[in-house]
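Researcher: Following up on the earlier apo prediction. This time include the ligand. It's zinc ion, with the SMILES given after the sequence.
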Amino acid sequence: MILSARSLHLFSVRPWLLTTLCLVLAACQPSQDDVNSNEGNTDTFIRGKLNTAPVNIDLYDSDEADEQTFEVQPASNNVQDSDSLEEPSADEELLADKELSSIKQQPTENTDSLSSDSSVPTDRENLLAGKQTDARFCLSDTATNSANSVLEDCRRISKRLASVSFEACTSANLKAVGCASNDGFPLYVTDFPPLKSRTPHGRILVIGGTHGDELTSVSVVFRWIEKLNEFHSGLFHWRIAPLMNPDGVLPKEATRVNGNGVDLNRNMPSSDWHEKALLYWNEKTNQDPRKYPGASPASEPESQWLLDEINEFRPDAIISVHAPYGIVDFDALQLNTAPKSLGKLRLNMLGTYPGSLGNFAGINRDIPVITLELPHSWVMPSQAESTRIWEDIVSWLKKNIDTRDSASQQN
Ligand SMILES: [Zn+2]
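Model: Understood. Below is the ligand-bound prediction.
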């Protein structure tokens, strides 16, 4: 269902429309479009040589009303299952995390699954530790569903997500990474590589759809891909995975977890995984099936892919999109560089969890991780707001990520 005020030419009665929609959906937030912005700053985009298309005025004309798209609403059980209803408050979670050290550690069956009596580390252990190896984790033991093609998969994605048109998906230039989700859906990335004329400031990895019931986190990333298609200037080398958890997003009833029932943002091999992940799940979430961290760190093909990507692409920063807290979280060793706000989202550090990407990449690997929590899981932010968020991300990266000197020293 796509609801476009512009297409109806009914700006003057738009509040009526939205009020009606709010009643129907019973989950609608106040329109962000109603706040006109004059911050359509295009400075952060330097048009690339390949860009011959005219600037899309919709993205920048602040006088233009925005479309607001409602993603297909998940089944009612998922609405009730929303994070905002179930998650303890951020402060509670942070407190709970800190309290973990006082919980007596209980041995679990899984703790020993990775420990080896041999003094020679296995490929898996090397990969988990980020050591150089020729092996790729997710390719080693995951069957890919080669019958699927990008076109077929884009058809599924665009059918599922109202804001992602088939054309937007096919023009995203998605490439299968060679490994598939637990249920056999190929994982895809799109790359915006360095341009000959310019040394990029660094490598940036962008991830959407880690939690399958956060539909907007996929669609917003597709919007950003569209922007890069027009404006990629070589400022950064971007690698973008819009849909990390297809098993959770694509079924009619979206789920936070993957097809194996694992919370992918608790399955990353953070250094405290063995000590805390299952303990946390047992003691602090009361074995909430939505937050199951898996039987062992990086047990899932999706998290194995992400680990491979971090080991091989070596991002200088990671942008991970979630919903629906409506804040910006930041994990890094240098916390003083945290962005104060991105678009209307304000910084609110949630702390870390055993097995989370912020914990693993931000703390253990010292790769700054910006976690965006969009305000709603299935109501899209306006075009103006998603553009502002993107521009603010690029501005933050320009200010804080610049590896050109160290890159030239290595060469
Ligand atoms: Zn999430």
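Model: Strands lie at 175-180, 186-192, 203-207, 237-241, 317-322, 327-331, 341-342, 345-347, 369-373.
Researcher: Noted. I'll compare it with the apo version next.
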